[in-house]
């Protein structure tokens, strides 16, 4: 009887110790599972704040660059001018000055002035047999809307459509040789004078700073000298300055 009790007492103590250990492990498990979840939530929160700050900086940079009231650009350009009577197209070099007033950060109205200068290639005629490469030039003034349809802090892409008038000088090298302003008979040159002008272009601006940008424009200019329509493709390269807050 004494030996039985002696065996029961250590057995009961051992079972109690095992139960307490299991209870301690079960009570520590929730803390161990909650710790990674809390750490993951903190990491996600930090990433969200970083993303939010980055987006705020981007929006502020866009606002700084495109909230100006005015901009002006000065460019040099290249154009292929279309002469009449199957004459060879003329390579012309250009200067272009633009002034734009914006109404909001996307829509504006542009005033455009430009001059184009080139040398035509014609067949010598009996009236003028010593001028086969006469200089020609045109001066245009146009106005129209511009729309900025893609913007980032670094660059933007816009489209514009312009309309106005152009003055062409095609007989300058024949002054003193003939009385009229239409070039020698049979030369194929247009007469000097006014004509309508239109321009459609895609504009790319690369921002060096919020106020200063480099500009490239791919464009097609249409003129109406004589009785035909002249589509004249070309491009311009220049710089842009912005000022005035809306």
Descriptive keywords:
47% strand, elongated, 246 residues, alpha+beta, Porin
The overall pLDDT, averaged over residues, is 83
Supply Rg.
39 Å
Q: What percent of residues adopt helix (DSSP H or I)? A: 25-40%
CATH class: Mainly Beta
How many angstroms does the end-to-end distance come to?
A: 103 Å
The biggest beta sheet reads: 8 strands, antiparallel, barrel
Order of helices and strands: HEEEEEEEE
| DSSP strand content | over 45%
Overall structural class, as computed from helix and strand content, comes to alpha+beta
Q: How many structural domains are formed by the residues?
A: 1
Shape: elongated
CATH architecture: Beta Barrel
Quick one: how many beta strands?
A: 8
CATH topology: Porin
Low-confidence stretches: none
Please work out how many helical segments DSSP would assign: 1
- Please state how the strands of the largest beta sheet are arranged side by side: 1-2-3-4-5-6-7-8
């Amino acid at each position: 009887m004494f030996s039985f009790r002696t065996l029961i007492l250590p057995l009961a103590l051992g079972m109690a110790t095992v139960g307490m250990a299991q209870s301690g492990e079960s009570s520590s498990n929730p803390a161990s599972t909650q710790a990674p979840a809390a750490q993951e939530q903190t990491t996600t929160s930090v990433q969200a704040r970083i993303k939010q700050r980055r987006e705020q900086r981007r929006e502020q940079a866009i606002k700084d660059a495109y909230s100006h009231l005015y901009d002006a650009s000065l460019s040099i350009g290249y154009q292929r001018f279309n002469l009449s009577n199957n004459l060879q197209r003329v390579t012309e070099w250009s200067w272009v000055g633009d002034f734009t007033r914006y109404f909001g950060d996307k829509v504006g109205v542009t005033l455009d002035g430009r001059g184009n200068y080139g040398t035509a290639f014609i067949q010598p005629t009996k009236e003028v047999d010593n001028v086969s490469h006469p200089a020609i030039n045109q001066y245009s003034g146009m106005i129209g809307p511009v729309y900025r349809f893609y913007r980032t802090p670094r660059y933007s892409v816009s489209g514009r459509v312009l309309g106005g008038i152009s003055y062409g000088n095609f007989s300058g090298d024949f002054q003193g040789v003939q009385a009229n302003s239409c070039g020698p008979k049979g030369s194929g040159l247009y007469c000097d004078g006014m004509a309508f002008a239109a321009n459609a272009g895609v504009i790319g601006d690369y921002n060096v700073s919020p106020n200063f940008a480099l500009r490239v424009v791919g464009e097609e200019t249409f003129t109406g000298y004589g009785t035909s329509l002249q589509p004249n493709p070309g491009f311009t390269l220049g710089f842009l300055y912005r000022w005035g807050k809306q």
